[in-house]
Amino acid sequence: MAGFPGLAAWCLAHLAIGLIGTWLARRYALRRQLIDQPDERRSHAVATPRGGGIAIVASALLAFGWLAWTHALPGATAALLAAGLVLVAGIGWLDDHRPLSPWLRLCVHAVSGCVVGSSIWLQGHSLEVAALGVAVTVVLVNVWNFMDGIDGLAASQALLVAAGWAWLAWPQPWAWMLIAIAAACLGFLPFNLSPARIFLGDVGSGSLGYLLAVGLSWLPAGAVRWPWLAWLPLSAFLVDAALTLATRMLRREQWWKPHVQHVYQRWAGRLRRHAPVSMAYAVWTACAVATMVLAREAGTGVGVVALGTGYAAATVAWLWLRQDRMSQGRQWQS
């Protein structure tokens, strides 16, 4: 697959899977009445089918199979990671059809995290790296689920993050996997941009989190220089998810239930539009990806400053947007 022709064919194949798979998923969702209805805990105003992320899952499973068949990845590693994806996608698919206990889903996510950690450890890497893989998997699966609340947001963020990490990892085998994820997301997005014709569903949001966790966990295993810089493109999602979750816990709210308290949800509600918010997050993450690529060539000190500055700026932006929302609410009430 080496070289531009192989890369172009790879991208086109997974783009086509994303497009065709999402179109088929939408037909299936409409036929089975898998519809997200608007309510006070959701950010959309029109009933919309869900489950379109199954197309991205199919793309990733085919990518795992191809990389194993061509010996770009060890067969056992590819099988383990594909099994973890099936677990996350499977529990999400069931939840899209019939709501399940959040604790059952969390248990399955933890098992999938152990699968990722085992795959890293079995390749001879340290227990620390393997343990990081477990934790990262559980975190990102749930972060992508929490942050999948407005049109185009979760898939566009996954596309940008995966493409940036592919740049870091090239020409390691993981770069091909990350490119496949990005291309499949690009195929899904025409159906998901505002006004969305289908949502990722739990099958898609959880699976994207899983696939990105695999990519992030295997960057140090692939001997990528300064792998910790890979956390920079995640800053918008991680800060919004973590601070919102912490706020809800401090207020003793039922944090595991759906809500509209994330900054992106409040912002979209104020604007009454999803597209500007998703675009703003995309611009932020694109800048973070560019900073990551540039900083990795500048040495450890610059990389540490870039990473710290990125997360500090994201935190300030989160605080400002929440305060802006609160102050405007007080003005409206007066």
Give structural notes:
By secondary structure, this protein is an all-alpha fold. The protein has one domain (4-333). It has twelve helices and two strands. The protein has helices spanning 4-32, 54-69, 75-97, 102-122, 127-146, 153-169, 173-192, 201-221, 235-250, 263-271, 275-295, 300-333; strands spanning 35-36, 48-49.
Brief account:
By secondary structure, this protein is mainly alpha-helical. It has 12 helices and 2 strands, in the order H-E-E-H-H-H-H-H-H-H-H-H-H-H.
**Low-confidence regions:** 325-334
- Give, in order, the helices and strands: HEEHHHHHHHHHHH
Percent helix among the residues?
over 70%
How does the overall form come out from the CA principal axes? globular
Number of domain units: 1
Spatial strand sequence of the major β-sheet: 1-2
Number of strands: 2
CA-atom Rg in angstroms = 19 Å
Amino- and carboxy-terminal Cα gap = 63 Å
Beta strand %: under 5%
Largest sheet: 2 strands, antiparallel
Q: Mean pLDDT, as a whole number? A: 88
Structural class from helices and strands? mainly alpha
Tally of separate helices = 12
Key traits:
334 residues, mainly alpha, two-stranded antiparallel sheet, 12 helices, 74% helix, disordered C terminus
